[in-house]
Amino acid sequence: YSVKRRDAPQPQAKGEKTPISDTSYVGIDAILEQMRRKAMKQGFEFNVMVVGQSGLGKSTLMNTLFKSKVSRKSVQPNVEERIPKTVEIKSVSHDVEEKGVRMKLTVIDTPGFGDQINNENCWQPIMKFINDQYEAYLQEEININRKKRIPDTRVHCCIYFIPPTGHCLRPLDVEFMRHLSKVVNIVPVIAKADTLTLEERDSFKKTIREELRANGIDVYPQKEFDEDAEDRMINDKIREMIPFAVVGSDQEYQVNGKRILGRKTKWGTIEGNIHEL
Ligand code: GDP
């Protein structure tokens, strides 16, 4: 039988593709369009956590990545209050939109991490926070009167800032990543990479990769993300670049007629970016 609708498409010339956006079209390939439309309407949620000692450029990098003020400045007026006595966990949410795709971005900051004299176990409150979000989500999921859309506060990604010492990881870095890599996707980055020369950066990256391996730290992208040969190839490329070297800036400059977010120094202007190699 034939499906007849008031708004049925007019007969088309041979070889012309049926527009799948037309609601009257019936076919399996229309599913893709339906899913796309639904996803666009709902938008996406992305929760990113930033961890590292104060002053490593966490707030600046978040503002660079999303090209707007998505993170508060870490410096507070009162010296006494600048470094909290314990690790705090603060979330700030924003609605960001790019080319019609909406995203609810939440930046989870962890002021106080690694800032004490004794930093032993300062990963614990962060681990607890992450696990609590899984628990809350699970409870909502198993609820009989399940919400149509469960609010997702789970941490999708944790960016860990390594100080640009050029030497090796500190015990604090190893401890944090060793524990947290079991519960969250860790993306290690070398903070303020503009302070290292290219050779220093390359050898620092190599040292960090070896240390991660030696300590059994499995960072993003983990092996289970390699679902097929193509995934593996893409992920292997990323693995070679880890840890990313990053430069953050929220100042705009004009360079060769192009407006960029960069750091103007006595020696030139460096573009704020994630440097691959
Ligand atoms: P947070 O405490 O980790 O959030 O650090 P901030 O983002 O407040 O940055 C601390 C200081 O470092 C500020 O003066 C920034 O301008 C500077 N800074 C941020 N990112 C970079 C970077 O990539 N390179 C350099 N050289 N300085 C940076």
From TrEMBL:
Residues 1-20 are annotated as: Disordered. The keyword Membrane does not apply. GO terms for biological process: cell division. This is Septin-type G domain-containing protein. CDD domains: CDC_Septin. The keyword Membrane does not apply. It comes from Oreochromis aureus (Israeli tilapia). Residues 1-19 have a biased composition (Basic and acidic residues).
